[in-house]
């Protein structure tokens, strides 16, 4: 009897090599072979264009339908390739084992069994390694280098040294991030709890919850557009400036409520310092639904007998909530808190979309973008500075990572696995 | 007492949450003038709005002493959609008056003339009434040139779908963004779910060395900020792209058409990146679900001689549909709504931009065409909101199962 492990290793290696060469080639081949589909779609578009006399230029139709053709085949190919991988590897695995151990079915199945898990987790591990782990580590090393690769701590000094140019921005970004970090999760949690409790006590609670919930489906940029109608405005004078002879228009609802006239054009989220709170509110509006859903489920999970007992003891609704229910869902509150904290730290879209990128509204994520696009003060170290801010961002997430890891470990133990 | 209070408080909160949606939809359905000159809350009641109209069409006028017409008709004959109706309040004209500061000279002022008051327009006496009828009287029969006048009308509410038609058919960007978003989103949802389902099955029910450690590492990657990975990924893709360019040069006659350059930021790079970023959550959700399935199923199937692949496709996948659905809706929403990954890694030529980037650009370009901006935003939201509401049950289940991913 020969040992199995060399066979397993060589089979595994053979499969790996086959895949590394076969998959890209198949993908490229499939894309090349299916190219005529784009033209076919474009022709279909032209035919439909002629049929229904569309108003826009023919060229647009052609372009758009060709793109739809590309969409169609890329979806099919991309999905096909991922199925193809699992099909081909399993077939390879089985047939290689058969070739290597012709006579023993048991040995064959042992080889197949040993390689199979790696086929299943292989793509995951490779992708995570190449797209998260290695990049994260290389960002870390980039942050400790000059642009030419010599090791240095200048990037961090640039952020932390009070005499350096980046210090002011970095300090403001940290201050703002801290404000966001405290205010956004706590506001979401307070609103979420309030809505969860109230919705349970009224008949139209489900409808109310749906309304609070929908913003979760919307992009941050979409939310920014939505709230622009409330916070921005100014109102463009109709046709010409009228020197106050006609009513002056104010199109932002909140600005109008605050009594801002049309001449006062600055959006509320551009205000110095206070603008931060309007940007935060947009995130609160989006994320409260998340807190609400979790709390709603958690409150329903509070054991009935504790509530009954409190009722018998004559607890009023406030005592019922603060003394009986809240302590029992405390760990859920903590989970929601950490989730929101991670989200807030990475928030980028809202200030970016609304161009709220003045120094006093910087966040770590927007500062990174600034560093990459607008900073000349960093000299040639632009990418390295970017990396060092990214590492600072990562550090702020670490406590959450630790907590999450601990929670998941505990959860896995509860699952008994 | 507390009951009433909870009704009131909840209604107030819901009101605050819904008003922005009302703002969005109502602004998108108003005319351009209305949207940029008056707040959305005035769109439900008569509102004074400014319009410009020409007294008559060029070159059709017979000489006459009295010209008659209707301002509202004139406005409606020029604009498409949004029939303007209401009370005509005033007309803004420029006229010369004696300048109090420089005696003997005149200066140009703007003046609002209410209904019924005579004003001097091209030497004729122009009078209009609240219902829009105007008379323009001259001393002798003349054929005046058309005059553009600015008029303020207390306009009745008018809604229409013109902005949607404009962004969808007259504007190339929105349809392109819509198609691009689909191109990005569908593979970026299906690929990770396929890969993750296999991995989750392996982590749950297969034996291999280092399984638990690998699982912990995979799941803890969930909270790594994606920003940390962008630069190296970008460098990697541009390395691959320059290889591909060289290969292209070598294999084809692309130099003749100057089309050798292979873009480093493409849909394919977005698919792979989104797949990688989505995997940790997917594996976490699916693995927890698959572990919970009855173990006897697996054992009896093994005894019957089924391979792992057969067990996976015949038993696990059909049973895991709820978990698969709940992850796919997460990933769908996440990719559809993503701005930052697309910004860094996605294609950056104008026709291939995904919707969030397009919308972010339109916040600048449609600054003065708020009806178009809002219509475009509505279109970008329809797909995720419909998916979300129709699969709400699975979404909530996923939230409750693994409320850890922040993006």
From TrEMBL, chain A:
Positions of the ABC transmembrane type-1 domain: 174-403
Membrane topology: Multi-pass membrane protein
Pfam family of the protein (one): BPD_transp_1
TM region positions: 12-33, 70-94, 115-137, 178-199, 211-230, 278-299, 329-348, 385-403
GO cellular component: plasma membrane
Main location as per UniProt: membrane
Entries under Gene3D superfamilies matching the protein: MetI-like
Record keywords: Cell membrane, Membrane, Transmembrane, Transmembrane helix, Transport
GO biological process, one term: transmembrane transport
Location in the cell: Cell membrane
InterPro entries: MetI-like, MetI-like_sf, UgpAE/MalFG_permease
Domain of life of the source: Bacteria
UniProt record similarity statement: Belongs to the binding-protein-dependent transport system permease family.
PANTHER family: BLL4140 PROTEIN, DIACETYLCHITOBIOSE UPTAKE SYSTEM PERMEASE PROTEIN DASB
Protein name: Alpha-glucoside transport system permease protein AglF
């Amino acid at each position: 009897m020969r040992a199995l492990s060399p066979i397993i290793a060589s089979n595994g290696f053979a499969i790996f090599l086959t895949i590394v060469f076969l998959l890209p080639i198949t993908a490229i081949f499939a894309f090349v072979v299916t190219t005529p589909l784009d033209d076919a779609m474009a022709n279909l578009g032209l035919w439909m264009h002629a049929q229904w006399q569309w108003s826009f230029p023919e060229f647009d139709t052609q372009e758009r339908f060709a793109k739809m053709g590309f969409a169609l085949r890329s979806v099919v190919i991309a999905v096909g390739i991922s199925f193809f991988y699992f099909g081909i590897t399993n077939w390879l695995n089985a047939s290689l084992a058969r070739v290597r151990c012709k006579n023993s079915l048991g040995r064959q199945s042992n080889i197949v069994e040993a390689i199979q898990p790696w086929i299943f987790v292989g793509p995951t591990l490779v992708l995570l390694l190449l797209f998260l782990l290695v990049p994260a580590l290389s960002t870390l090393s980039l942050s400790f280098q000059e642009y030419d690769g010599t090791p240095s701590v200048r990037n961090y000094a640039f952020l932390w040294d009070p005499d350096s140019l980046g210090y002011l921005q970095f300090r403001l970004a940290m201050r703002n991030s801290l404000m966001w970090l405290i205010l956004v999760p706590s506001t979401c949690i307070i609103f979420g709890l309030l809505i969860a409790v109230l919705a349970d006590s009224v008949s139209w609670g489900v409808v109310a919850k749906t309304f609070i919930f929908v913003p979760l489906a919307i992009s941050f940029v979409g939310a920014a557009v939505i709230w622009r109608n409330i916070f921005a405005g100014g109102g463009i004078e109709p046709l010409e400036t009228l020197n106050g002879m006609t009513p002056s228009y104010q199109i932002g609802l909140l600005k109008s409520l605050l009594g801002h006239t049309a001449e006062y054009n600055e959006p509320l989220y551009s205000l110095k310092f206070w603008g931060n709170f309007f940007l935060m509110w947009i995130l609160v509006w989006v994320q409260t639904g998340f807190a609400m859903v979790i709390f709603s489920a958690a409150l329903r999970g509070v054991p009935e007998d504790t509530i009954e007992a409190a009722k018998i003891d004559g607890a009023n609704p406030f005592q019922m909530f603060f003394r009986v229910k809240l302590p029992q869902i405390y760990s859920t509150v903590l989970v929601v808190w950490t989730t929101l904290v991670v989200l807030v730290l990475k928030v980028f879209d809202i200030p970016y979309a609304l161009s709220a990128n003045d120094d006093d509204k910087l966040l770590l994520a927007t500062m990174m973008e600034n560093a990459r696009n607008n900073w000349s003060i960093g000299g040639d170290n632009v990418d390295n500075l970017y990396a060092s801010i990214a590492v600072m961002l990562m550090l702020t997430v670490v406590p959450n990572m630790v907590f999450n890891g601990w929670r998941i470990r505990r959860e896995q133990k509860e699952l008994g696995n | 007492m507390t009951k009433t209070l909870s009704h009131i408080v909840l209604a107030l909160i819901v009101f605050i949450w819904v008003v922005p949606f009302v703002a969005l939809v109502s602004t998108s359905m108003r005319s351009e003038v209305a949207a940029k000159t008056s707040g959305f809350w005035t769109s439900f009641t008569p509102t004074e709005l400014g319009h410009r109209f020409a007294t008559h069409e060029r070159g059709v006028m017979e000489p006459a002493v009295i010209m008659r017409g209707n301002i509202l008709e004139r406005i409606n004959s020029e604009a498409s959609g949004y029939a303007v109706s209401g009370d005509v309040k005033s007309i803004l004209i420029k006229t010369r008056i004696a300048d109090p500061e420089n005696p003997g000279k005149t200066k140009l002022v703007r003046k609002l003339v209410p209904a019924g008051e005579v004003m001097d327009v091209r030497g004729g006496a122009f009078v209009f009434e609240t219902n829009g009828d105007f008379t323009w009287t001259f001393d002798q029969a003349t054929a005046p040139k058309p005059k553009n006048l600015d008029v303020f009308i207390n306009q009745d509410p008018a809604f229409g779908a013109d902005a949607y038609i404009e962004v969808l058919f007259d504007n190339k960007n929105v349809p392109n963004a819509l198609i691009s978003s689909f191109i990005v989103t569908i593979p970026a949802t299906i690929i990770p779910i396929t890969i993750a389902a296999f991995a989750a099955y392996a982590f749950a029910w297969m034996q291999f060395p280092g399984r638990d450690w690998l699982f912990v590492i995979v799941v803890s990657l969930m909270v790594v900020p994606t920003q940390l990975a962008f630069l190296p990924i970008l460098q990697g893709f541009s390395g691959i792209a320059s290889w591909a360019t060289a290969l292209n040069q070598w294999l084809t006659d692309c130099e003749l058409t100057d089309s050798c350059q292979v873009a480093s930021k493409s849909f394919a790079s977005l698919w792979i990146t989104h797949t990688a970023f989505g995997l940790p959550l997917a594996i976490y959700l699916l693995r927890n679900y698959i572990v919970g399935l009855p173990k006897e199923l697996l054992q009896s199937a093994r005894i019957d001689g089924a391979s792992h692949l057969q067990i996976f496709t015949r038993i696990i996948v059909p049973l895991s549909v709820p978990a698969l659905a709940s992850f796919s809706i997460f990933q769908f929403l996440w990719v559809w709504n993503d701005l930052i990954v697309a910004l860094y890694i996605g294609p950056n030529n104008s026709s291939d931009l995904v919707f969030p980037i397009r919308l972010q650009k339109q916040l600048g370009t449609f600054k003065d065409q708020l009806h178009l901006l809002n219509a475009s935003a509505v279109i970008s939201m329809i797909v995720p909101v419909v998916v979300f509401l129709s699969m709400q049950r699975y979404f909530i289940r996923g939230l409750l199962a693994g409320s850890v991913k922040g993006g």
